[in-house]
């Protein structure tokens, strides 16, 4: 979309929220720090499993290692579920079902209107852009905050412009 092109709009529905949440959660869980954290938890789980197999007849050690493995597994599952729930809540708060999202991709800035309000953000404000199947995620400079936009409001030209400017 060029600077004189009209804004694109989309009506948000529950399926759009679910799909954008999935894209955002996948993005979040595949960041380097998250990968390192999950790799460490999985390594701890594997080490516990190996030690559990080697312990043999000591009931106290077997019980402790089993509970430790269960705690590690629960921590992994809970953190993924918490990430999904908080991401879905954030998306649903700014773009509830039935609301209209409007985005205009200009030469120097992005204009967005949702239930949360209207904003015009210069591209220099963003550190990176990641475009999934259902959501575009724009990461702000100097923070871990990500702005999520429905992919439906961005044409392929818009995506190319965003990637070239950010």
Describe this structure in words.
- The protein is α+β, with helices and mostly antiparallel strands.
- The chain folds into two domains: about 10 and about 100-165, no CATH class; about 20-95.
- The protein contains four helices and seven strands; from the N terminus they run E-H-H-H-E-E-E-E-E-E-H.
- The strands form two sheets. It has a four-stranded antiparallel sheet, with helices on one face. It has a three-stranded antiparallel sheet with strand order 5-6-7, with helices on both faces.
- A hairpin with a 3-residue loop joins strand 5 (about 125-130) and strand 6.
- Helix 1 (about 15-30) crosses helix 3 and helix 2 runs antiparallel to helix 3 (about 60-95).
- The longest helix is centred in the middle third of the chain and has 36 residues, at about 60-95.
- The two termini are about 15 Å apart.
- The model has no long low-confidence stretch (mean pLDDT about 90).
Which features characterize this protein?
single chain, 166 residues, alpha+beta, 2 domains, four-stranded antiparallel β-sheet, three-stranded antiparallel β-sheet
